[in-house]
């Protein structure tokens, strides 16, 4: 009888976490290369990766680009304060139109929406913020410009502690 290596809780076991960390660093790494790091054979790594894909833990494989090398030199966080009661659907629909938006999240506190964005330069950033302010539901914005990105982690951080 085979058991799920994730156990009854569905959390990842240490080997799955190690495999995911390796894939997050280099999604093109071979199963053999990953196996040599996590002490498994290539077929065992493949079985685990297939199982992680089936479970939806791995949604796809992608490339990580260097935004600065592509001309996106300025980075900022913009807080949006909404007028009235604005639904998350309305907010998402509005900010999805901005190619500069990296992520947008509703948050707790006085701020309604936190946006992480990139722009070519300060002038471009100013234009983006002006366009955000022009959205009908936006009462005001507050911006914070990133000086140095000190820690950037891939999406894999392992299972949360119980």
TrEMBL record:
Domain named HTH asnC-type: residues: 12-73
Transcription as UniProt keyword: yes
Pfam families: AsnC_trans_reg, HTH_AsnC-type
Gene Ontology annotations of biological process type: response to amino acid
Alphabetical list of InterPro entries matching this protein: AsnC-type_HTH_dom, Dimeric_a/b-barrel, Tscrpt_reg_AsnC-like, Tscrpt_reg_AsnC/Lrp_C, WH-like_DNA-bd_sf, WH_DNA-bd_sf
GO molecular function per UniProt: sequence-specific DNA binding
GO CC terms, sorted: cytosol
Keywords recorded for this protein, A-Z: DNA-binding, Transcription, Transcription regulation
Protein name as annotated: Lrp/AsnC family transcriptional regulator
Species for this entry: Pengzhenrongella frigida
